[in-house]
Design goal:
Layout: H1 21-36, E1 39-48, E2 54-63, E3 72-80, E4 86-96, H2 97-102
């Protein structure tokens, strides 16, 4: 008897994910926002891995500056599976906006 594996329509088991960069960034933003309730600032990096996963780094405002533009920011990395599910979230670093501009 032949065993047939179920697959996502239009995608073979060997084919890479059809998740777009824009969708991966949206998933990363939503994931960090739902876990931290912090305001999104920018995308630092977005990369598709050979196995179809996405690694997205986003910066969020952890603490707005009271005066001036020296917000405390944090960089979060979100690993997203080939079907769009968040697999891992890590805070990589915290820094002040002025520190980043001088680097």
């Amino acid at each position: 008897m032949m065993h047939e594996e179920s697959a996502i329509p239009g995608q073979s088991k060997e084919s890479p994910s059809h998740l777009t960069m824009r969708a991966a960034i949206g998933i990363a933003r939503d994931t960090v926002a739902s876990l931290t309730v912090l305001s999104f600032d920018s995308v630092g990096q977005c990369e598709r891995c050979a196995d179809g996963r996405w690694m997205v780094q986003i910066d969020v405002i952890e603490s707005p500056a009271r005066m001036g533009d020296n917000d405390l920011l944090a960089t979060y990395e979100v690993e997203i599976g080939d079907e769009g599910e968040p697999l891992k979230v890590s805070r990589l670093r915290r820094y002040h906006r002025e520190d980043e501009e001088q680097a």
